[in-house]
Amino acid sequence: MPVDLADVERDLGAIMACYAYWLARRNGTMEPDAGFWRSRTRERPGDETHRVVVVRDDDAITGFSIFARSPDASAHLSSGFDVRCRMFVANDDRALRALIAYVRGYRGIGRHLLWSGPPSDPMTMLVGVQAVEVSDRYRWMLRVLDVRGALEGRGYPPIDAEATFAIEDPRYVENTGVWHIQLSSGEPKVELGSSHDRRPLSIGAYSSMFSGYLRPVDAVRLGYLDGGDPAVEALSAILSGPDPWCPFVF
Q1: Is this model's pTM higher than 0.90 or not?
Q2: d(CA 241, CA 155)
Q3: What is the C-alpha to C-alpha distance for residues 222 and 213, in angstroms, rounded to an integer?
């Protein structure tokens, strides 16, 4: 599939739609507003290597990359560089392979492709064994401010399940208490629960579980939940999903 330089004025809406489709199938990512996208995609007079490229499938954009070149200190030639992606999004294998093929066009003095990805990125299966290295890792912070709103607004697998658990939040007392969540084909119903004789979760541990970063079975191993708590198995199903990560720094 062809990869074209984006016409930001024309393509911004389609780029945002491509990202929204990609976002709905990931965990822990964020949906920026149009101002963010204009800032990321606009031309940068001080950096002539800045590019926004897109993969088109008829009238739709199915993949895009926002990147610039940066010097590679390990290169034998002073002109060697890395392709450093600010965003790298592909919604199907054709778009992904098209973007990789485009970047391969820089081979020679182009040394490395750098992008943000999850801890176990499936993209690594398209290259040789141990050909991908983690150059940097930053564990971003999450703090749930509104337990009810977060539980009602989160996406869930299309299952039937329910769990009761307690939370302690010394700063926002409205979050403290017993919570009951029931899923019906993935649609949540959230209510305050009654008495609960199990260990309550701190708001920090709960926030990590809510994001999918901390698995409930690991919360037991760390002492955040009791091993015999029936909520452990239920929360493992309710809060299941891929590892959370964010494809950009904000």
Answers
A1: no
A2: 10
A3: 14
Compute the mean pLDDT over every residue in the chain, rounded to the nearest whole number. Answer: 89
Predicted confidence at residue 74, as pLDDT, reads 65
Residue 226's H or E segment, with its range, is none
Written as one string, the DSSP assignment of 46-85 is: T-TT-EEEEEEETTEEEEEEEEEEEE-TT-SSTT-EEEEE
Domain segments of the chain as ranges: 3-126, 147-238
CATH of domain 3-126: 3.40.630.30
Of the chain, the percentage scoring pLDDT greater than 70 comes to 97
What six digits make up the tokens of 187? Answer: 């649609």
147-238: CATH number: 3.30.1050.10
Q: Which residues contact 108 (CB under 8 A, 6 or more apart)?
A: none
* Whole-Å CA distances, 31 to 18, 19, 54, 64, 71: 12, 8, 19, 16, 30
- 95 close to 106: Cβ distance less than 8 angstroms: no
Whether the CB-CB separation of 164 and 179 falls below 8 Å is answered with yes
Which comes out higher in pLDDT, residue 209 or 196?
209
Which pLDDT score, from 0 to 100, does residue 73 have?
60
Element (H, E) at 143: none
